[in-house]
From TrEMBL:
Recorded GO MF terms: pyridoxal phosphate binding; threonine synthase activity
Family: Belongs to the threonine synthase family.
Pathway: Amino-acid biosynthesis; L-threonine biosynthesis; L-threonine from L-aspartate: step 5/5
Protein name (database record): Threonine synthase
Keyword vocabulary terms for this entry: Amino-acid biosynthesis, Lyase, Pyridoxal phosphate, Threonine biosynthesis
EC number: 4.2.3.1
Record-annotated Tryptophan synthase beta chain-like PALP domain positions: 85-366
PROSITE patterns, alphabetized: DEHYDRATASE_SER_THR
Keyword Nucleus in annotation: no
Amino acid sequence: MELVNLKDSSDTASFAEAVKRGLGKNQGLYFPEHIPTLDNIDELLEKPFVERSIEVLRALIGDELNNGELEEIVQTAFAFGAPVEQVNDNVYCLELFHGPTLAFKDFGGRFMAQTLSRISEGKPITILTATSGDTGAAVAHAFHGIDNINVVILFPKGKISALQEKLFTTLGGNIHTVAVESDFDACQSLVKTAFDDPDVREGLHLNSANSINISRLLAQVCYYFEAVSQLPKEKRDQLVISVPSGNFGNLTAGMIAKSLGLPIKRFIAATNLNDTVPRYLKTGEWDPKTTVATMSNAMDVSQPNNWPRIEALIERGYIDKACLKGEMVDEEYTQLAMRQLAQQGYTSEPHAAIAYRAVSHDLEDGEIGLFLGTAHPAKFRETVENVLGNPISLPKALADVAGEDSLAVDLPASYDALKQHMMDLLK
Ligand SMILES: *Cc1c(COP(=O)(O)O)cnc(C)c1O
C-alpha cells in the first residue's frame, strides 16, 4: 500500500511506515495513493466477518503483511461482533459497542495495537494520544501489557464521565494517563506540538494512536461491510448511513468503504452543537467556533482532524459531494431522540441518538437508514438515566472498574509541563 501526505506530496509512506509515523511532515495526514474497486462485493457480503475483513484489508494493504500475519491480527482484534438491530420499519442501528471498552474505538485500537506490535519488531515505542473519552479506553486496553510499548493518554480533566475515565486511568503498568486542565482541543494541540518536537518525537519514538492513524481507519472500513451484509438484500441499494461525528474518522472509514464499491447511497454527518462541518457544507465557509460541552462529549470537537481526508476523497473523485449532508442536533433534540428510541423499545445514548435523529428526519421514500451505535448506553449511564428516568444496569467491564482508583496525573495545558513529565517518566 502506498500512502501520500496530504500536505506534502513528496512525503510518501508504505502502510508499515504510515502506521509507525502516525502523522507525516508538517502534521500532514497520510492518504491512500489509490483506492481499488472491488468487483466481488456480493460474494464478500456472504462471508463471515473475520474472513471478509481479511479480504477487504488485503485489497487495501496489499502484501506488506503476509497472509498469516494479517489473519492473526484480524482474528485477535475482531474477537467480537457488530450486530445490526432493527429499530423501526426503515431504521436500523449498527451496534459497535460489544468490545472490551464498549465503544466502536475497540475495533481500530485493537487492530492498530496488533499491527504495531508485529511491524515494530520489538523496538521501543511511545504512543501519545489525546482522548475525549472513548479513544483513551480503547487504546489503553488494546496496548495494555504489550512489551516495549508505552502509552501516554491526555484527557480534558473533569470533562468526561467518571465511569469512562475509570476505564483507562485504572490500568497502570505501561499505560500512563494525564488529566489536562483544559478542553479536548487543547489536549489535541499538545499532542501535535509533541510530534513537532524532535527531542520527544525521536527521543521517545512517538506514535499517535488517535483517529489520525491510518490503521485505525482501515479497521473501521470492515464494519461497514458487516452492516450491509446484515441488511435485507432488496433494500441494500437504498441505504443512507448516519454517522455521529467528532473527529470524522468514522465517516472517513465509511467513505473509503463506499469508494471500494460497497453499496451506500449517501451519508449524513451528524454532529452536536459543535457543528463546524454541517455549517461548512451549507455555506462553504470553514469557521470553527470555540468548543462547547454537550451530553455527547466524545463529539465535542470543533476542529475535526480527519476532515482533510474527506475533502481528499471528494476532490479525487472517489465520493460525489452530493452524497454527503451535514446535520446538527442540539441538546434538546438529542434528549427527544433518546426518548423516541426508548418508546420504540431501544435504549440508546446521546451520540447514537444524534445520528438516529438526523437520519430518521431525512429519509426519502424507499430509502432505509442505518445509524452507528458508537457506544454502549451504560458508558453514559448518568445522562441516560436522567433523560429516560429509568435505571440501567452496568455491563461487567464497567462494574469491575467502577470501584478502582484513578492513577491519572494532573497537568496544566502547558507543553513544557507535558514534555518534562514524559521525559521523567520514559527516558
Ligand atoms: C469517538 C466517538 C465518536 C466520534 O467519532 P469520530 O470518528 O471521531 O467522528 C462518536 N461517538 C462516540 C461514542 C465516540 O466515542
